[in-house]
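HOLO CASE FILE
Compound: iron/sulfur cluster
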Amino acid sequence: MFKNAINGLTTAWRGLTLTIKHLFTSNAKREIIPITDDNYFKQQQNTNTIQYPKQQLPVPEVGRYQLDVEIDDCIVCDLCAKICPVSCIDIESIKSTEGSIGETSDGSKKLLYAAKFDIDMAKCMYCGLCTIVCPTECIVMTNQYDRTVFELKDLNYEFSDMKPEDAAEKRRLLEQQQAEKQAAKLAALKAKEEGK
Ligand code: SF4
Ligand code: SF4
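Model generated. Tokens follow.
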């Protein structure tokens, strides 16, 4: 019993000294310094809180945070969606009926419209694979980490700039073109058979 009492007192004393230490150190002012500074990790030990958002901790240059897509540079190849381990990228492409619809900033030809390009950041595990496979480097991880939302659905980011009515029109044109091609094929086949 005596041993238990000593143990209890020692533990309480340790806890109390730690609390008192933090009480004083948490008031210590800290400078915001880059993560590359030799003093960076030393400085973490004496501070419990910072006055966010007035003060913000620097983020590493290679940090993986919020994804962003420069949709004008996207060729809608779907590689990012295919490689994503958690299937949080949802793309709907529509083939252009008039061939090339423009070029990306690196000169890649654009042949598909992005009717839908959604990324559900609530599911994303920030692996960065999508940014590695992208041939035009238009999907990138930014240094933005503060994306607090009230509703989970608000973490679904829509990058397509196509209006639903425009997408519907492009789908209609494609279906019409495919039907015309099919009809032409059948007519050619029929003519061939009749010519035998
Ligand atoms: S970072 Fe990883 S999990 Fe997130 S969208 Fe890209 S591939 Fe998917
Ligand atoms: S990999 Fe890049 S170019 Fe291909 S669909 Fe994704 S963002 Fe667009």
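CASE NOTES: The longest strand covers residues 112-120. Helices lie at 2-25, 40-44, 79-83, 129-133, 164-195.
CLOSED: yes
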